[in-house]
Design brief:
By secondary structure, this protein is mainly alpha-helical. It has one domain. Helix content is about 80%, strand content about 0%. The chain is built from 18 helices and 2 strands. The chain has a two-stranded antiparallel sheet. Helix 1 packs antiparallel against helix 13 and helix 2 packs antiparallel against helix 12. It is elongated and about 80 Å long. It is a multi-pass membrane protein.
Length: about 500
Amino acid sequence: MSPKGSLDKDLEKIVHVEAAARSVTRGNVSHGIAILFLGLSGLLAITVTGASTEAAIIVFAAILGGYMALNIGANDVANNVGPAVGARAMTMIGALVIAAVFESAGALLAGGDVVDTISKGIINPDLVPDPNVFVWGMLAALLSSAVWIHLATFIGAPVSTTHAVVGGVLGIGIAAVGFDLVNWHVFGAIAASWVISPVLGGVIAALFLAFIKLNIIYREDKIAAARRWIPILVAVMAGAFAWYLSVKGFKRFWKPDLTTLLIIAIGSFTVVYAIMKPLVRRQSEGLENRNQSLRKLFHIPLICSAALLSFAHGANDVANAIGPVAAILHGVQDGALSAKVTVPIWVMIIGAFGISLGLFLYGPKLIRMVGSKITKMNPMRAYCVALSAALTVIVASWLGLPVSSTHIAVGAVFGVGFFRESFTRRSKRRQELMQRQRQSRLGEDSPPVDMKPAHSPEEILKRKLVRRSHFLTIVAAWVVTVPASAALSATVYWILSLVR
């Protein structure tokens, strides 16, 4: 081998070592910042509540609440911005900033000062014989659910933080009192959402993608079709988000009736349509009649949808971190049990800041998973995922069905990918359009193109546009989230009962 070849190989090894060293260093810095945040959470707790005989429990609860918030940010927020990042409508840094700002705003402005700490009524605190049992049980539930979400993030599986908390509460309820403590009717409704959420989200996303393909992408004049339909689609999204935020985002201080919701949704649709119609026309002027041009027209709607989804998520899921902490604080200080408690502002700050910090430190891994590793995204597909998330929550709320926002968003990603697989196999129109486009590029006077399919039927059947390994990993994590969290919670509670 020549000296030059040896030198190149040595330099390449050095580059790999340097890259590995940078990766390890970044990981250590992230862990250090996370540990510092947990320490400050405990310090804030002792500063606000003061020294007392229960101070150690309060500090421990605050640290666990901060740990849970970090894990929510690392895992759950990816569903809101991942598709937009995968579609390259947003950079990773831009997505992190937008998500952090709107998650914090949602948590602090609309997070709710009264939180259902017993996870949607899954256990009845009146049946708990001793407040101390309740306090230690909540500590076990919070720790076990946070550890499970941490593990799911490590393996790259977006899971429902609400289901993790449900499992944790279920486990300590059974371990502390027995099966009679559990409201099995409520638990059954929550379990139904494991199937309802992803299926409903996937179907709605696939239907919108089919509509976009047939009415915009595969039209002869794509720009004219885009000018007609994109304002309507964006207006539909605006109406859906107006309804979504009215029902979910501002429930702390406003509960509108159905008539009011319809007025808000229709009004938002009308206003946004009036704005978008001339805006899309101006944006489309001079654009070529190709798919790449269409993608540019979806960028702004995607950014807006990511921000609105993050706001609604912060308003709703911050309760998974701070609810148990508020319950522990209430039980320790008042010595009473209650299904609903008031959340102090300092606890809300820990939850809101922890979610944003977890997103910055550990969120990119799951953002890449949701945005690009399950199936390839473009702005049209990502738009369908975002719109599906809002519409599915509306439909489920109207039907009285419990759903998971995580399962909806990831189910929508699956739905888009599986629809693409099916469409690729069956679409003769697509092959005909490709033939016309190729003939157009060659010129009308050229001999007719003998267009052969881009792929043989056997090759098309083998094409998997959804990565099966990720699909199976995520579905398996969904199935075991509640039982795993319950088993962890019961084990932790048993250990704590021995040492306390």
